[in-house]
Design brief:
4-stranded mixed β-sheet, 2 helices, 2 domains, single chain, globular, 2,3-Dihydroxybiphenyl 1,2-Dioxygenase, domain 1
């Protein structure tokens, strides 16, 4: 038996580390647990936590390749965060200049959700609990 217990972290590569760190920490509410500059790779690595739990490993690399632009590209489709109230979360994001799509209803669960993007265009979702 493999014995997987939970997701340990999600790794994200940013084109502008400082801008993405501010987005995830100052706008989305993650906390920076630690960061290190890896000179040999000209790369920053930041460990971000949500409610005290390590969640995102934020990297920068010089000249990373662009993410495929079409919505159904193979690979990670999006990263979803649960919220208590999607309308309040949208208002917060939009007050910081982050554009959100129109709210949709999950046809299976009846729950409300919306999509928005991080500074590099990574699709993110807010899913109302």
């Amino acid at each position: 038996m493999l014995g997987i217990k939970q997701i340990h972290h999600i790794a994200i590569i940013a084109t502008d580390y400082v801008r993405s760190k501010a987005f995830y920490c100052d706008i989305l509410g993650f906390t920076l647990q630690g960061e290190v500059y890896r000179e040999e790779r000209d790369s920053w690595k930041g460990d971000l936590a949500l409610n005290g739990q390590y969640v995102i490993e934020l990297f920068s690399f010089p000249f990373p390749p662009a993410r495929p632009g079409w919505p159904e590209a193979c690979g990670l489709r999006h990263l979803a965060f649960s919220v208590d109230n999607v309308d309040n979360a949208i208002a917060h994001l939009e007050s910081h200049g982050v554009r959100c799509e129109a709210v949709r209803i999950d046809p299976i669960t009846g729950k409300r959700f919306t999509f928005f993007k991080d500074p590099d265009g990574l699709p993110l979702e807010l899913y109302e609990q």
